[in-house]
Amino acid sequence: MNNHIFDNPEEIFDNNIIPPDEETDDDLFDDDEYSQDISLSDSSSAEISENGLYEHYRFIVDKGQKMLRIDKYLTDRIEGASRNRIQNAADAGYIFVNDKAVKSNYKVKPLDIITIMMDRPRHELKIIAQDIPIDIVYEDEYLLVVNKPAGLVVHPGHGNYHSTLVNALAWHFKDNPNYDISDPRMGLVHRIDKDTSGLLVIAKTPDAKTSLGLQFFNKTTKRKYTAVVWGNVENDHGRIEGNIGRSQKDRLQMTVFEDPQIGKHAVTHYSVKERLGYVSVVECRLETGRTHQIRVHMKHIGHTLFNDARYGGHEILKGTTFAKYKQFVNNCFEICPRQALHAQTLGFIHPATKEEMFFEAPLPEDMTELIDKWRGYISNRNTENE
Q: What's the pLDDT tens digit per position in 202-228?
């Protein structure tokens, strides 16, 4: 077995950091990850195995898992890992099932224990405390709720090693001896994209994270987002269901798959709050939490988020060809220079007091101005037609 087939095994899987602009709407304890007991080894405590390798990932396959090729299975479950890299890792003898090396065509079965082993410990990413302002909505000894502004990356990753929410939290908790920013048993319970604004909950104790994580897993949390989307959404209310996985055409995009064995089950409920001609203001309620879920599901039904550059919403998708209209839309893009998506409400049961907690973050200024701009446009157009 050639354990040195790669110059840097860490490049096979981006296993210690999240790629830029890839913070997700995935709960850290989402449906698959929580039940399958995914864990990451810490380089400071990693032990070398009998075969001379270090454990980087461990999966315990869910009891209800259908037989599926292991390269497909791992591609869906490891952030930033391509199927080709997983196949190369299997060929190099880095992927084990029940302590035996397997090839990429091995089909996983319920309760298989999958480990990914490499010839060196995981690289440790040191979190540096930075004095970055945080909009704290609520805090007690168990948890913290923050209103994240658009543009702030949640977690350090490629190209974003500093100036993230985690760096800001490290500063906020620097004098708290009971909070270790590098301890995975506490901290972020869920994440939102860099250019999405809104509410996030952070656990300050292991018990709080377990309790909150279970609530996300069991879908008992209450999360609603406000979005501006292209087009006049036909139905006042709707339900979007479709597996979400990484696009095979563009690895930076997620997409909806018809094949039930590809991607992760995802459900989004929406209701139209306001129709503004060529755009609509909608409220989205998450039943699951997948990477880019709202952005992907709304595009799937033909209503891409306004100014969502990743999914084509930064182009004029609806409206006229008049130069005046084009200038108006370009002005709107400048007002809200990111996908128009805001995590507006968050509700959960307090992990210690068992009290029902509910928080709401008002729309940020850029989205408020954007909606007002479209209201003015529709009002003027209706006046001209009278």
A: 999 999 999 999 999 888 999 999 999
At position 355, the amino acid (one-letter code) is E
User: Which of these, 275, 337, 327, lies nearest to 306 by C-alpha position?
Assistant: 337
Whether the CB-CB separation of 265 and 243 falls below 8 Å is answered with: yes
CB-side neighbour CA atoms (13 Å) of 364? 24
156 and 162 Cβ atoms separated by less than 8 Å: yes
Strand partners, 275: 280
Gyration radius of the chain over CA positions: 22
Q: Strand pairing of 107-108 and 54-60?
A: unpaired
Using the Cα atoms of residue 301, residue 269, residue 332 and residue 191 in order, give the sign of their dihedral.
negative
Cβ neighbours of residue 22 closer than 8 Å, sequence gap 6 or more: 79, 80, 157, 291
- b/e sequence 333-361, b meaning 16+ C-beta within 10 Å: bebbebbbbbbbbbbbbebeeeeebebeb
| Confidence at residue 151, expressed as pLDDT on a 0 to 100 scale | 95
Instruction: Name residues of the chain where pLDDT drops below 70.
Output: 1-52, 80, 120-125, 157-161, 382-386
b/e map 116-145, b = 16+ CB within 10 Å = bbbbbbbeeeebeeeebebeebeeeebbbb
Annotated catalytic sites, by residue? 193
Query: pLDDT at position 261, please?
Result: 83
The domains found in the chain, sorted by start residue, are: 9-118 (3.10.290.10), 136-216 (3.30.2350.10), 222-385 (3.30.2350.10)
Between CA 261 and CA 300 the distance in angstroms is 18
pLDDT at residue 93 in the model: 87
What pLDDT score was predicted for residue 223? 94
Q: Residue 64's CB: how many other CB atoms inside 10 A? A: 7
- Among 374, 303, 285, 289, CA closest to 339: 303
Q: How far is 347 from 223, CA to CA, in rounded Å?
A: 6
> C-alpha 36: how far from its chain's center?
18
Write down the pTM of the prediction.
0.73
Give DSSP secondary structure letters for 123-175.
PP-PPPP------EEEE-SSEEEEEEPTT--SS-BTTBSSSSHHHHHHHHTTT
